[in-house]
Protein backbone atom coordinates (compact mmCIF):
# COMPACT_ATOMS: atom_id res chain seq x y z
CA UNK A 1 0.00 0.00 0.00
CA UNK A 2 1.26 3.49 -0.79
CA UNK A 3 0.96 6.66 1.25
CA UNK A 4 -2.09 6.73 3.52
CA UNK A 5 -2.71 9.72 5.76
CA UNK A 6 -5.39 10.26 8.37
CA UNK A 7 -7.84 13.07 7.58
CA UNK A 8 -9.82 14.87 10.28
CA UNK A 9 -13.08 15.06 8.24
CA UNK A 10 -14.45 11.49 8.09
CA UNK A 11 -17.62 12.63 6.34
CA UNK A 12 -15.75 14.22 3.41
CA UNK A 13 -15.83 12.29 0.11
CA UNK A 14 -12.96 9.83 -0.26
CA UNK A 15 -10.83 9.86 -3.41
CA UNK A 16 -8.60 6.85 -4.10
CA UNK A 17 -5.53 7.44 -6.27
CA UNK A 18 -3.97 4.37 -7.90
CA UNK A 19 -0.65 5.48 -9.39
CA UNK A 20 2.91 4.13 -9.15
CA UNK A 21 4.58 7.55 -9.55
CA UNK A 22 5.02 9.00 -6.02
CA UNK A 23 5.57 12.59 -7.23
CA UNK A 24 2.26 12.61 -9.10
CA UNK A 25 0.41 10.90 -6.26
CA UNK A 26 1.80 13.32 -3.65
CA UNK A 27 0.78 16.31 -5.78
CA UNK A 28 -2.76 14.96 -6.14
CA UNK A 29 -3.04 14.04 -2.47
CA UNK A 30 -2.07 17.57 -1.48
CA UNK A 31 -4.41 19.20 -4.02
CA UNK A 32 -7.41 17.09 -2.99
CA UNK A 33 -6.86 17.47 0.75
CA UNK A 34 -6.37 21.21 0.36
CA UNK A 35 -9.94 21.27 -1.01
CA UNK A 36 -11.35 19.45 2.01
CA UNK A 37 -11.52 15.98 0.46
CA UNK A 38 -10.20 12.74 1.86
CA UNK A 39 -7.54 11.09 -0.30
CA UNK A 40 -5.74 7.76 -0.20
CA UNK A 41 -3.03 6.33 -2.41
CA UNK A 42 -2.14 2.82 -3.53
CA UNK A 43 0.63 1.69 -5.85
CA UNK A 44 -0.84 -1.47 -7.37
CA UNK A 45 -3.94 -2.33 -9.34
CA UNK A 46 -4.86 -5.26 -7.10
CA UNK A 47 -4.72 -2.97 -4.07
CA UNK A 48 -7.07 -0.54 -5.80
CA UNK A 49 -9.62 -3.28 -6.56
CA UNK A 50 -9.61 -4.51 -2.97
CA UNK A 51 -9.83 -0.98 -1.53
CA UNK A 52 -12.87 -0.19 -3.68
CA UNK A 53 -14.39 -3.54 -2.72
CA UNK A 54 -13.97 -2.64 0.96
CA UNK A 55 -16.31 0.33 0.42
CA UNK A 56 -16.30 4.03 1.11
CA UNK A 57 -14.51 5.18 -2.05
CA UNK A 58 -16.37 7.98 -3.84
CA UNK A 59 -14.08 8.49 -6.87
CA UNK A 60 -11.23 6.34 -8.21
CA UNK A 61 -8.39 8.16 -10.01
CA UNK A 62 -6.75 5.34 -11.92
CA UNK A 63 -3.43 5.29 -13.76
CA UNK A 64 -3.50 3.14 -16.88
CA UNK A 65 0.12 2.00 -16.55
CA UNK A 66 0.21 0.28 -13.17
CA UNK A 67 3.06 -2.21 -12.61
CA UNK A 68 1.04 -5.33 -11.75
CA UNK A 69 -2.20 -5.17 -13.72
CA UNK A 70 -3.11 -2.36 -16.10
CA UNK A 71 -5.66 0.31 -15.28
CA UNK A 72 -8.06 -0.94 -17.95
CA UNK A 73 -8.10 -4.38 -16.29
CA UNK A 74 -8.59 -2.74 -12.89
CA UNK A 75 -11.60 -0.84 -14.25
CA UNK A 76 -13.04 -4.02 -15.74
CA UNK A 77 -12.74 -5.80 -12.38
CA UNK A 78 -14.17 -2.86 -10.43
CA UNK A 79 -17.15 -2.58 -12.78
CA UNK A 80 -18.08 -6.16 -11.95
CA UNK A 81 -19.21 -5.04 -8.49
CA UNK A 82 -19.16 -1.22 -8.25
CA UNK A 83 -20.38 1.89 -10.08
CA UNK A 84 -17.82 4.17 -8.40
CA UNK A 85 -16.78 6.93 -10.84
CA UNK A 86 -13.42 6.19 -12.51
CA UNK A 87 -11.14 8.92 -13.87
CA UNK A 88 -8.30 7.49 -15.94
CA UNK A 89 -4.94 9.20 -15.55
CA UNK A 90 -2.34 8.32 -18.14
CA UNK A 91 0.62 9.45 -20.22
CA UNK A 92 -1.10 7.92 -23.25
CA UNK A 93 -3.55 10.35 -24.80
CA UNK A 94 -4.34 8.60 -28.07
CA UNK A 95 -8.00 8.45 -29.08
CA UNK A 96 -8.02 4.63 -29.12
CA UNK A 97 -7.02 4.58 -25.44
CA UNK A 98 -9.71 7.12 -24.52
CA UNK A 99 -12.32 5.14 -26.40
CA UNK A 100 -11.27 1.86 -24.77
CA UNK A 101 -11.33 3.41 -21.30
CA UNK A 102 -14.84 4.76 -21.82
CA UNK A 103 -16.11 1.49 -23.28
CA UNK A 104 -14.83 -0.33 -20.18
CA UNK A 105 -16.90 1.94 -17.94
CA UNK A 106 -14.55 4.83 -17.23
CA UNK A 107 -16.16 8.22 -16.60
CA UNK A 108 -13.37 10.60 -17.59
CA UNK A 109 -9.86 10.59 -19.05
CA UNK A 110 -6.99 12.95 -18.18
CA UNK A 111 -3.63 12.87 -19.95
CA UNK A 112 -0.31 13.64 -18.27
CA UNK A 113 0.99 16.25 -17.74
CA UNK A 114 -2.09 17.73 -16.13
CA UNK A 115 -3.09 20.57 -13.83
CA UNK A 116 -3.87 19.47 -10.23
CA UNK A 117 -6.51 22.20 -10.15
CA UNK A 118 -8.16 20.71 -13.24
CA UNK A 119 -8.11 17.25 -11.66
CA UNK A 120 -9.78 18.57 -8.50
CA UNK A 121 -12.45 20.22 -10.68
CA UNK A 122 -13.08 16.96 -12.52
CA UNK A 123 -13.32 15.05 -9.25
CA UNK A 124 -15.82 17.57 -7.90
CA UNK A 125 -17.84 17.29 -11.11
CA UNK A 126 -18.08 13.53 -10.61
CA UNK A 127 -19.16 14.04 -6.98
CA UNK A 128 -21.85 16.55 -8.00
CA UNK A 129 -23.32 14.13 -10.49
CA UNK A 130 -23.69 11.53 -7.73
CA UNK A 131 -25.43 13.99 -5.39
CA UNK A 132 -29.10 13.42 -4.44
CA UNK A 133 -31.59 14.86 -6.90
CA UNK A 134 -33.63 16.79 -4.26
CA UNK A 135 -31.00 19.46 -3.58
CA UNK A 136 -32.73 22.72 -4.48
CA UNK A 137 -31.20 22.87 -7.97
CA UNK A 138 -33.05 24.55 -10.85
CA UNK A 139 -34.20 21.49 -12.80
CA UNK A 140 -35.73 22.22 -16.22
CA UNK A 141 -38.25 19.55 -17.18
CA UNK A 142 -38.02 18.14 -20.73
CA UNK A 143 -40.43 15.24 -21.02
CA UNK A 144 -39.10 12.27 -19.06
CA UNK A 145 -35.86 14.21 -18.56
CA UNK A 146 -34.88 17.14 -16.35
CA UNK A 147 -31.72 19.20 -16.81
CA UNK A 148 -29.73 21.06 -14.14
CA UNK A 149 -27.51 23.18 -16.36
CA UNK A 150 -25.67 24.83 -13.44
CA UNK A 151 -24.76 21.45 -11.97
CA UNK A 152 -24.25 19.73 -15.35
CA UNK A 153 -26.67 16.99 -14.38
CA UNK A 154 -29.58 15.25 -16.09
CA UNK A 155 -32.36 13.20 -14.53
CA UNK A 156 -34.42 10.52 -16.23
CA UNK A 157 -37.79 9.93 -14.55
CA UNK A 158 -36.42 11.34 -11.29
CA UNK A 159 -33.13 9.43 -11.33
CA UNK A 160 -29.89 11.38 -11.76
CA UNK A 161 -27.83 9.83 -14.56
CA UNK A 162 -24.15 9.25 -13.80
CA UNK A 163 -22.77 10.93 -16.93
CA UNK A 164 -19.31 11.94 -18.05
CA UNK A 165 -18.83 15.55 -19.18
CA UNK A 166 -19.13 14.48 -22.83
CA UNK A 167 -22.17 12.27 -22.28
CA UNK A 168 -23.83 15.17 -20.48
CA UNK A 169 -22.98 17.61 -23.26
CA UNK A 170 -24.27 15.24 -25.96
CA UNK A 171 -27.54 14.47 -24.19
CA UNK A 172 -28.11 18.12 -23.24
CA UNK A 173 -27.58 19.16 -26.88
CA UNK A 174 -30.11 16.57 -28.07
CA UNK A 175 -32.62 17.61 -25.39
CA UNK A 176 -32.42 21.24 -26.48
CA UNK A 177 -34.09 20.26 -29.78
CA UNK A 178 -36.26 17.15 -29.29
CA UNK A 179 -36.94 15.40 -32.58
CA UNK A 180 -34.32 17.39 -34.49
CA UNK A 181 -31.47 15.45 -36.13
CA UNK A 182 -28.03 16.68 -35.08
CA UNK A 183 -25.08 15.62 -37.19
CA UNK A 184 -21.90 14.28 -35.62
CA UNK A 185 -20.19 17.54 -36.54
CA UNK A 186 -22.88 19.54 -34.72
CA UNK A 187 -22.59 17.31 -31.66
CA UNK A 188 -18.81 17.59 -31.66
CA UNK A 189 -19.10 21.36 -31.86
CA UNK A 190 -21.38 21.41 -28.80
CA UNK A 191 -19.63 18.79 -26.66
CA UNK A 192 -15.90 19.10 -27.33
CA UNK A 193 -13.61 22.05 -26.67
CA UNK A 194 -11.56 21.07 -29.71
CA UNK A 195 -12.91 18.97 -32.57
CA UNK A 196 -9.30 18.12 -33.46
CA UNK A 197 -9.27 15.84 -30.39
CA UNK A 198 -12.37 13.94 -31.45
CA UNK A 199 -13.99 12.27 -34.42
CA UNK A 200 -17.03 10.36 -35.62
CA UNK A 201 -15.95 7.26 -33.74
CA UNK A 202 -15.62 9.23 -30.50
CA UNK A 203 -19.17 10.57 -30.84
CA UNK A 204 -20.50 7.09 -31.62
CA UNK A 205 -18.68 5.61 -28.62
CA UNK A 206 -20.13 8.20 -26.24
CA UNK A 207 -23.61 7.67 -27.67
CA UNK A 208 -23.14 3.94 -27.06
CA UNK A 209 -22.16 4.43 -23.39
CA UNK A 210 -24.93 7.01 -22.97
CA UNK A 211 -27.50 4.54 -24.29
CA UNK A 212 -26.24 1.89 -21.86
CA UNK A 213 -26.72 4.27 -18.92
CA UNK A 214 -30.19 5.24 -20.11
CA UNK A 215 -31.06 1.54 -20.43
CA UNK A 216 -29.85 0.94 -16.87
CA UNK A 217 -32.14 3.79 -15.73
CA UNK A 218 -35.14 2.06 -17.34
CA UNK A 219 -35.31 3.97 -20.62
CA UNK A 220 -37.11 1.53 -22.91
CA UNK A 221 -37.43 1.91 -25.81
CA UNK A 222 -34.18 3.73 -26.49
CA UNK A 223 -35.00 7.49 -26.65
CA UNK A 224 -31.94 8.21 -28.84
CA UNK A 225 -32.65 7.58 -32.52
CA UNK A 226 -29.93 6.90 -35.09
CA UNK A 227 -30.51 8.40 -38.53
CA UNK A 228 -28.03 6.64 -40.80
CA UNK A 229 -25.82 9.05 -42.67
CA UNK A 230 -27.35 12.05 -40.89
CA UNK A 231 -26.76 11.85 -37.15
CA UNK A 232 -28.76 11.42 -33.96
CA UNK A 233 -32.01 12.72 -32.49
CA UNK A 234 -33.87 12.25 -29.24
CA UNK A 235 -37.53 11.28 -29.31
CA UNK A 236 -39.83 14.30 -29.05
From TrEMBL:
Domain of life: Bacteria
InterPro entries documented for this protein: CheY-like_superfamily, OmpR/PhoB-type_DNA-bd, Sig_transdc_resp-reg_C-effctor, Sig_transdc_resp-reg_receiver, WalR-like, WH-like_DNA-bd_sf
Entry coiled-coil feature ranges: none
Any single biological process term in GO: regulation of DNA-templated transcription
A GO molecular-function annotation: phosphorelay response regulator activity
Gene3D superfamilies, alphabetized: 3.40.50.2300, 6.10.250.690, Winged helix-like DNA-binding domain superfamily/Winged helix DNA-binding domain
One GO term describing the cellular component: cytosol
Domain OmpR/PhoB-type: 137-236
Matching SUPFAM superfamilies: C-terminal effector domain of the bipartite response regulators, CheY-like
Residue positions, PTM 4-aspartylphosphate: 63
Keyword annotations from UniProtKB, A to Z: DNA-binding, Phosphoprotein
Protein name: Two component transcriptional regulator, winged helix family
Species of origin: Pseudoxanthomonas suwonensis (strain 11-1)
